[in-house]
Amino acid sequence: TIEPNTGIVPIPDERLDKLAGMYKSKKIIPATVTFVDIAGLVAGASQGEGLGNQFLANIRTCNAIAHVVRAFDDSDVQHVNNQVSPKKDIEVIETELILADLQTVEKIFPKLEKEASIKPDLRPRLEILKQVKELLNEGSMLNTSSDTMPIEDKKWLQQELQLLTIKPVIYVFNIDENQLSDDTQQEELKDIVKPSKAVFICAKLEYELQSLSESEKAEMLETYGIECSGLTNLVHAAYDTLGLQSYLTAGEKETRAWTIKKGATAPEAAGVIHSDFEKGFIAAQVINYHDLVDAGSEQAAKAAGNVRTEGKEYTMKPDDVVEFRFNT
Fold it and tell me: How many CB atoms lie within 10 A of CB 300?
């Protein structure tokens, strides 16, 4: 597994089926999250061990990292270190990411220091880089140490310098069937990675679920005392970690969930459909999904006074069902 594998996973959303039935839509298009699956890093990856540099390059282009950590015991499945220790495995990966970032910072630092001596406006950037270097030398991940950092500085570190440790991380613990209901162990694993998100997946169960119908899946999940699959939990965790939400559009042609950043304005949301919608934005006709379903139809929602006309300053909400008005 040298080359990364890319998978586009739809976000389960019961609202889409409901709206498609109301509007007699021909198509349903859910929001999606793209996952890039790369082989595991090994100790020394930052120095090129195990084709580490190539794998690190693949991580740089992603917005967040989902770190899959083995947390099950099985003598038939070999562990690279012949010992199952989630804490140690996490430390190996974090060390390699920190070392890779230190290489990046140490390469840039002398150049920025020289430029800042001539251009005073670059001195704040140099100070930020000094702080980053200190944190990395202390063995700290930047994603848990940069909460007070200005947004613009974070963007610089993420987008221009492409530092790895500032990316948000979801820890995906691969557990066995018996551990699915072991709340004590799950809490212990959560404590290792706080404040990052932890998701628990039984890969063996997920594999079995793939071949089942929806009713069979629900029945099997119920036998394990869980409401939804690990993959569903992971997709929702990824969406939330990336600071995303969706709004809905519905009509005879299609019912669709559109992905936007949390806090996006109505024109920004319209721009996700087409840039012309944002440029020529006039207004948004908005109905809360629950009000629409309770009313039974768009016409009934209008009659009940549940349809609002919002302008350019409106901040989108997760349950908004929207129709945009715009000039061409």
Answer: 13
Long-range own/partner contacts, residues 187-196 (CB < 8 A, 24 or more apart) = 189/71, 189/86, 192/86, 192/87, 192/90, 193/90, 193/169, 195/144, 196/143, 196/144, 196/168, 196/169, 196/170, 196/171
What sections of 119-243 are H helices per DSSP? 123-137, 151-155, 183-193, 203-209, 214-223, 230-241
Cβ atoms of 71 and 19 within 8 Å: the answer is no
Query: 169 with 94: CB under 8 angstroms?
Result: no
Residue 325 Cα to chain centre, angstroms: 30
What ranges make up the beta strands (E) of the chain?
5-10, 27-29, 32-37, 65-70, 169-174, 197-201, 244-250, 254-261, 281-288, 307-310, 320-326
| Mode of pairing for the β-strands spanning 27-29 and 254-261 | parallel
Nearest to 127 by CA among 162, 94, 157, 166: 157
pTM of structure: 0.81
C-alpha span between 35 and 9 (Å, rounded): 7
Which amino acid makes up residue 76? D
pLDDT digits (tens, 9 = 90+) for 74-92: 766 655 556 678 999 899 8
User: What number of other Cβ atoms are within 10 A of residue 171's Cβ?
Assistant: 24
Give 130's pLDDT tier (boundaries 50, 70, 90): very high
Identify the band that residue 73 occupies on the pLDDT scale cut at 50, 70 and 90.
Answer: confident
Residue 35 contacts residue 66 (beta carbons within 8 Å)? yes
Cα torsion 205, 209, 211, 217 to 10°: value is 140
